[in-house]
Write a structure and sequence with these properties.
The chain is α+β, with helices and mostly antiparallel strands. The chain contains six helices and four strands, in the order αβαββααβαα.
């Protein structure tokens, strides 16, 4: 910023006025040299490198899925918002990357919801301890909603690279940069859950009533995906890549 002032007669400036004028000029001229806060740079595109003593960790929730029934996808919402979200609020500053993974297939893994995060072993240990103490999780297990919880062992860390939980069939560049993309998607989905559950009138202290609130939220979010997903998500993702054609290699089953 260029600082200018009109000539002023010395006789018109009193000592107090001169002091105020000097303070004004000093503050005004310093605006151009004030450091600009860049925020957390760990997940900026040019700095997506492995962090010292940090690893990917998984907490997998195996959800009870009776035969001849569709998977109850609302359980994923309950786990994400009521069990994992409080832990995220407490430890997200120590997790440069985190995400959710959802799947349900009639195989050995079955219906499974997974919380993944990248952090130091001591943070992983604290996160797993907090999840283990969750009253909602305990109620879900007792009600035969969640069958098993599998957590990585912080004493035996694995997966130190940023792309270590990406699909190994992708190019190395996509593997490395994909975690920041899916973290944003996971954060958006969690925000939609929070908004809809907050507005729900069916919330209850019982695990059954609570799950019903998440079923209602799941239906509302599914409706938003159906009606708004093409433009809000797919169109704008397409725009980022310059509207270039994409090769559809095979039908994907989810």
């Amino acid at each position: 910023m260029r600082c200018e002032m009109n000539p002023i007669s010395k006789s018109k400036i009193r000592p107090r006025g001169l002091l105020l004028l000097l303070l004004f000029l000093t503050c005004g001229c310093s605006l151009s040299t004030k450091p600009v806060a860049t925020g957390a740079s760990h997940n900026f595109p040019y700095n997506m490198n492995a962090l010292e003593d940090s690893f990917w960790w998984k907490c997998r929730f195996k959800i009870v899925w009776p035969e001849n029934r569709e998977p109850d996808w609302a359980v994923d919402l309950l786990l994400a918002h009521a069990v994992v979200s409080p832990v995220l609020s407490q430890y997200s500053a120590d997790m440069p990357y985190w995400r959710f993974h959802r799947r349900a297939a009639r195989d050995s893994a079955g219906h499974q919801f997974t919380f993944l995060f990248y952090s130091k072993p001591e943070i992983a240990s604290a996160v797993f301890a907090e999840i283990d103490k969750s009253a909602v999780l305990k109620d879900s297990v007792n009600a035969d909603i969640v069958g098993k919880v599998i957590m990585d062992d912080p004493r035996h860390p694995q997966r130190p690279k940023i792309g270590d939980t990406s699909d190994p069939h992708w190019s190395l560049e996509v593997q490395k940069n994909w975690p920041s993309y899916i973290m944003g998607v996971s954060s958006l989905w969690l925000g939609l859950i929070a908004d809809h559950v907050h507005n729900s009138s069916t919330a209850s202290n019982s695990i059954g009533g609570l799950l019903e609130a998440y079923r209602k939220a799941d239906a509302q979010i599914t409706e938003k995906w159906r009606n708004e997903g093409q433009h809000a998500f797919l169109h704008h993702l397409n725009a980022v890549f310059g509207y270039q054609p994409m090769l559809i290699k095979k039908r994907l089953a989810f």
